[in-house]
Design a protein that fits this description.
The structure holds 2 protein chains of 2 kinds.
Chain A (H helix, E strand, L loop, with lengths): L1 H14 L2 E6 L6 H12 L3 H14 L1 E7 L1 H13 L4 E5 L2
Antiparallel strand pairs in A: 1-2, 1-3
Helix pairs in contact in A: 2-3
Chain B lengths: L1 E5 L3 E7 L1 H14 L5 H7 L9 H30 L10 E6 L3 H18 L4 H4 L10 H24 L1
Antiparallel strand pairs in B: 1-2, 2-3
Helix pairs in contact in B: 1-3, 1-4, 2-4, 3-4, 4-6
The chains are: A alpha+beta, B mainly alpha.
């Protein structure tokens, strides 16, 4: 019984998508955040501005959702640009 | 001061006033937070909440040193570029940097602004205020310095996108 519980947990963990979330920061410039989104995710300028404005107005924006390893990579990239970025389990 | 693209592979800062040259030369020093906890907390912010214990430990062990190396490397690039700031008596100064260094400049200017904002506890409201201060204090002058570095960042972004 215990073994079954463990297996289920691992499977769930592997299958769960993860969000890369960028949080509002009064120091980072809007133009800079837009540029970073374009560089890191390859967004068009329009899409990058959409997420930047979402961060600015709502305090956060989910900029990417997918596999855990890739999400960790993106969070690291964003920290390299000094953005406030976190990894969150997608609901 | 004007900042513009020079040919394909360089960015030129011209008509640099003495006070502007001084502020530019201060950038690498400002980035040395001297172990200030608030500054370090902002430069190396948490990548997840505390439930991600193992991830946070791995991050501290492997990723944080990489980030530190990245930030120090960018500072070194900017410091070396600043050593090329022209200095002809009686003339405004000029600086030409390789376009490939623009990321290092944007990063270092960001480091400087984040550290100053953290050290002086500026609020979001203060940071978005661009009106002239009614009186000057060290704090007001630092806010002007943050805004000056923001302006340089904007112009470098414009120059790289031209």
């Amino acid at each position: 019984m215990a073994e079954t519980v463990v297996e289920t947990k691992v499977e769930t963990s592997l299958g769960t998508p993860w969000n890369v979330v960028v949080h509002d920061d009064p120091v980072n410039l809007m133009s800079y955040v837009t540029m970073v989104f374009q560089r890191v995710f390859g967004f068009t300028k329009q899409k990058a501005q959409h997420h930047m404005l979402e961060v600015h107005h709502k305090g956060r924006s989910i900029v990417w959702t997918g596999a855990r390893e890739r999400a960790e990579f993106y969070v690291q990239q964003l920290h390299g640009y000094l953005l406030l970025a976190t990894l969150e389990r997608a609901e | 001061m004007l900042i513009r693209r020079l040919k394909e592979d360089a960015i030129e800062f011209i008509q640099i006033e003495p006070i502007e040259a001084g502020l530019l030369q201060e950038v690498p020093g400002v980035c040395d937070s001297g172990g200030d906890d608030q500054s370090d907390a902002r430069l190396y912010s948490s990548p997840a909440d505390s439930s991600e214990n193992q991830f946070l430990n791995d991050w501290a062990e492997y990723v944080r040193p990489e980030l530190r190396h990245l930030f120090l490397s960018a500072r070194k690039t900017v410091k070396e570029d600043l050593e090329k700031l022209s200095d002809v008596p009686g003339r405004l100064r000029r600086l030409v940097i390789p376009r490939a260094h623009s990321d290092a400049w944007l990063n270092v200017l960001n480091q400087a602004r984040l550290i100053l904002a953290a050290k002086f506890n500026f609020t979001a409201r203060e940071l978005s205020t661009h009106s002239a201060p009614k009186w000057f204090s060290r704090r007001e002058l630092v806010l002007q310095q943050i805004n000056f570095y923001a302006e340089i960042q904007e112009r470098i972004i414009d120059a790289t996108e031209e």
